[in-house]
């Protein structure tokens, strides 16, 4: 997975969320749930890490509108 940089969390309301799930379907369902609640730069696929169970998915969230409401 690519590195998290200062830009990803440069100000309040920006976040990086990593999902670990048993399968692709579950990880993508979590991403859809997040997308319904805030702006997200979605992942187009999950990854598998050797020696770790399940799959991983990373999304970049922007909840600034929700924080200012």
Give a description of the structure.
The protein is of the alpha+beta class and 69 residues long. 25% of the residues lie in helices and 28% in strands. The chain is built from 2 helices and 3 strands, in the order βαββα. It has helices at 24-35, 64-68, and strands spanning 14-21, 39-41, 55-62. The protein has a 3-stranded antiparallel sheet, covered by helices on one side. The longest helix is centred in the middle third of the chain and has 12 residues, at 24-35. The radius of gyration is 13 Å and the shape is flat. It starts with 13 loop residues before the first strand and ends with a helix. The model has no long low-confidence stretch (mean pLDDT 86).
Euclidean distance between termini CA atoms:
33 Å
Number of helices: 2
Shape: flat
Which percent range describes the beta-strand content?
Answer: 25-35%
Helix content: 10-25%
Count of distinct strands: 3
Rounded mean pLDDT is 86
Low-confidence stretches: none
Radius of gyration, in Å, reads 13 Å
Spatial order of the strands forming the largest sheet = 1-3-2
Question: How are helices and strands ordered from N to C?
Answer: EHEEH
Summarize the biggest pleated sheet: 3 strands, antiparallel
Class from secondary-structure proportions: alpha+beta
